[in-house]
Amino acid sequence: MKQESNRNKNSLSVLLKKEILVSIKSPAAYVVIIVFLLISGYLFADGLFLSNVATLRPFFSLTGILFLFFIPALTMRSFSEEFRNGTLEVLATHPISRSRLVFAKALSSFLVVVAALIPTVFYFIVVASLGNIDPGTAFAGYLGLLFLAAGYVSVGVFASSLTQNQVAAFIIALFVLFIFFILDKVTALTTGSLAYILQYASSDFHLATFYKGAIDIRDVVYFCGVAVFFVSLTSKWLELKFK
User: Fold this and answer.
1) Taking Cα atoms as reference points, which of 37, 235, 75, 79 lies closest to residue 152?
2) Domain assignment of residue 5, yes or no
3) Is 55 within the bounds of a domain?
4) pLDDT band for position 151 (50/70/90)?
5) What does the pLDDT read at residue 17?
6) For residue 37, which of 49, 29, 48 has the smallest C-alpha distance?
């Protein structure tokens, strides 16, 4: 039993190292990160000078919107590239758990998002030098972005598992994430329990709690639930596909 557990850990670490190396060697990942930093930097500077208030709230809010495009662009090749090259069929013949494969791909993409967010800590330094800013609020905002990224990455990986066309994977992920994003915007058209359900299902609604400086366990459960659901869905889909 212990040997099997060690073997599973080793297979997961090997898969994760492989996926991280693929990301590091991919020029597309660097292009996506650079574009994200350029756009987020512009929006941060523009919002800072327009509002003239020492706060990162506009940055967190706008980054949530940027993630709608940034993360699908990052994850669209996760499985699509494997399908196109025929390497996934080879992996399917090995005794590798589908769930571990999906988890490794999702985690490697998530780490790229983390790498893209690290330079934005400079924005906090700039704002802190211009006025008083609560570090706890900034921490909560960044934590919210990480939870949001985990949920969005799982959706992007699932979309990539549906097709070998990367553009199609991008569009599918963008469509699904956009639906999650706007759900709380249509609650004005509904009432009662339906309005509450739509609001709770909205990713932007839960992110807003974080960038206001609060950490609510319901928001954590929501993002973790989305991540686990789509990772599990992707695993089941691959099991059916290569049964």
Assistant:
1) 75
2) no
3) yes
4) very high
5) 81
6) 29
Q: What is the rounded radius of gyration, in angstroms, for the C-alpha atoms of the chain?
A: 19
pLDDT at residue number 4: 46
Query: Scanning the structure block, which residue is given the tokens 């492989």?
Result: 18
The residue segments making up the domain with residue 165 are 11-241
Residue 176 lies in a domain: yes
> Cα dist. 73→30, 68, 112 in Å?
11, 9, 12
Q: How many domains does the chain have?
A: 1
Q: Kindly report the pTM of this predicted structure.
A: 0.89
Long-range contacts of 235-238 (CB under 8 A, 24+ apart): 235/98, 235/99, 235/101, 235/102, 236/98, 237/158, 237/161, 237/162, 238/79, 238/92, 238/98, 238/101, 238/102, 238/161
Which tens digits make up the pLDDT trace of 115-147? 999 999 999 888 888 878 888 889 999 999 999
- pLDDT for 177 equals 96
